[in-house]
Amino acid sequence: MSDELSYEAARAELAEVVSKLESGGGTLEEALALWERGEKLAEICQARLDGARARLDAASSSDVA
């Protein structure tokens, strides 16, 4: 499942999607499918970053206590 992608894998695939969209040449349906995949990948990246931030915040607050 795509939700199980690591941040690095999702970011790399997102870069590929952006490159394909920028190069054009496909059909409107292909572009829409790429856009939707890119949106999903961006969500995965953001979730991974949010999770990392929460872990850092938790570690920082436990160090202070």
- What is the radius of gyration? 16 Å
The main pleated sheet reads as:
none
Structural class: mainly alpha
Would you tell me the overall average pLDDT? 93
Instruction: Report how far the terminal alpha carbons are from each other.
Output: 39 Å
Count of alpha/pi helices: 2
Report the portion of residues in β strands: under 5%
Number of DSSP E strands = 0
Uncertain segments: none
Order of helices and strands: HH
Helix content: over 70%
Morphology call = rod-shaped
Properties at a glance:
65 residues, 2 helices, 0% strand
In short:
With 65 residues, this protein is mainly α. 83% of the residues lie in helices and 0% in strands.
Describe the structure.
With about 60 residues, the protein is mainly α. The chain has one domain (about 10-20, about 25-60). It has helices at about 5-25, 30-65.
Task: Give the helices and strands, then pairings.
Layout: H1 7-23, H2 28-64
Helix pairs in contact: 1-2
